[in-house]
Amino acid sequence: MKQRFLKAFLSLSIGFGVFSYTSANAQSLSDIHKKQAENEAKKQKKNSEIKEVQGQQDQVLKELEKIESNLEQTKKDIQTKKTEIDDTKKEIDSLKDQIAKIQKRIVERDALLKERVRSMYESGGAVKYLEVVLGSQNFGDFLDRLISLNLIAESDKALLEEQRRDKAQVEEKKQNVEQKLDSLNSKLQELNGLNDKLKAQKEAKNRLSASLKKKETHLHEDVTSIEEKNEILSAQEKAIKEEIARAKREAEQRKREEAARKAAAEKAAQQQAAEKRAAEKENRQAPAPAPTPKQSTPSVSANFIWPTKGYVSSPYGTRFGGSDFHPGIDVAAGGASNPIVAAADGTVARSYLSSSYGNCVFVSSYIDGQLYTTVYAHMSERMVSTGQSIKQGQRLGTMGNTGHSTGQHLHFELHKGQWNYAKSNAVNPIPYLH
């Protein structure tokens, strides 16, 4: 009767332990699925924001293309005006040469006319002419002299008219060209102003485009971060299932070991009882009470060992005046090959290279019905792979300085439950370590 009761008690104890593992795991998996659904919703929202930003970028690029086209046309117009200005300047230079030549002839003619006027003044003016005419030898000579005088007067008059006409024409052309040059310079100034305006618009649009591009990049980074978090959660889900299977296997193994110990104890008790009955019969001694079988103890302890040797360079909790929360501890040490070991038995939920954690390993462990997650980050190398079952003290990698790190150390996190991006399950690891 006692043996049947003991068997029933042990079966219930082991079954209840497995049930507690399964219940705890079911709750953990449910939380993981919930977090995954939340992350998926956030991802969809970020993707919608990315599409909206990309649409804004397309509009900005169209405006930039239009501005670029206007800018090129303006450059062509400016070049055309510069060519016209150069041609006009050449015309002005040519006219200046003509003016200089004409002015030189005018000066020479003015000197000749002044000389004639001075001579007439000194000789009495009209008397001189009269003497020239009256001094003729005959009527034919008179006519020749009179015609010569008239021709000289007409020549001087024509010369003066030619000088005035050429000078007026040159001055008119010069004025027209200078007006044209002023107009071209004004137009060039307007085009330069338009060019500066278009450049300013282009710079503004480029800044806007760069801002939108930067925003899109950040959104992509957010999506990548969410995807990485989902991957960690998925990996944890798989690791937890592995831990359930491991817990069942260990429970069944303990059950078999307990049954074997019980059978051996019963056999030993029966043999001892038989021996004692024989001895009692022979020696008439009183029977001794049968020994009570010892209860087995769980093979896994709630304690964790230190994952590496060194000193705590940054403790758990708030840092930098309360502006930053540190969800774990940093353990630093010199040397190039400091080993990192598993703080407890478990299953590697994920072993990968993270942009922030660097070379890191996530381990899921069930200890006395409680799920724990340990994180080992910034390692220089990893020696275990995702899904691998590990034992306490097994080497996971080597202390390093990868990811967002400012020096060689191990960043170690302990979560009472599964890891989540809010780090809400993180606890101070030091009280758990021995």
TrEMBL record:
Question: What keywords are annotated for this sequence in UniProt?
Answer: Coiled coil, Signal
At the top level, the lineage of the source is: Bacteria
The Basic and acidic residues compositionally biased stretches are 251-265, 274-284
Which residue range or ranges hold the Peptidoglycan hydrolase PcsB coiled-coil domain? 99-173
**Coiled-coil intervals, chain numbering:** 34-105
Carries keyword Coiled coil? yes
According to the UniProt entry, where is the signal peptide? 1-26
Residue ranges occupied by any M23ase beta-sheet core domain in the UniProt entry: 325-423
Q: What is this protein called?
A: Peptidoglycan DD-metalloendopeptidase family protein
Q: Where is this region: Disordered?
A: 251-300
